[in-house]
Amino acid sequence: MAAKFKMTGFARFLLALIVIIPGAYIGASYIKGEDGIENAKKLIGISNTSKAPTNTSADRDNNTCELQVKSLQKQVKNLREENERLRSEIDNLQK
Q: What is the pLDDT of residue 44?
């Protein structure tokens, strides 16, 4: 009869650390707003280096600014038209 395989407390501790530490690292990376799995791959050295360029935050900020400028220009145009209309109404009432 074969002997039963018994696990010591230290072996259980090591197995728990093998699961807990990478999980904590990935979770902390996600909390910081990074890709935890990609960070872990870079740390180990198995990451894919040929990455397609992504939309950076500077590009998004630039797009957001352009949208805001267009919106504000439209608002200025509308306000100028309203101002001109009100001036003409005032002129008509004064006559």
A: 83
For the segment 29-73, what is each residue's pLDDT rounded down to a tens digit?
Answer: 889 888 888 888 888 888 666 555 566 777 777 888 889 999 999
Nearest-angstrom CA–CA distance, 83 and 57: 38
> Can you give 32-92 as a three-state secondary structure string?
CCCCHHHHHHHHHCCCCCCCCCCCCHHHHHHHHHHHHHHHHHHHHHHHHHHHHHHHHHHHH
Please name which of 35, 38, 36 lies closest in space to residue 26, comparing C-alpha atoms.
Answer: 36
- d(C-alpha 77, C-alpha 74), whole Å: 5
Say how far apart CA 39 and CA 32 lie, in whole Å.
Answer: 12
Domain ranges of the chain: 11-47, 56-95
Question: For residue 95, how many other CB atoms are within 10 A of its CB?
Answer: 4
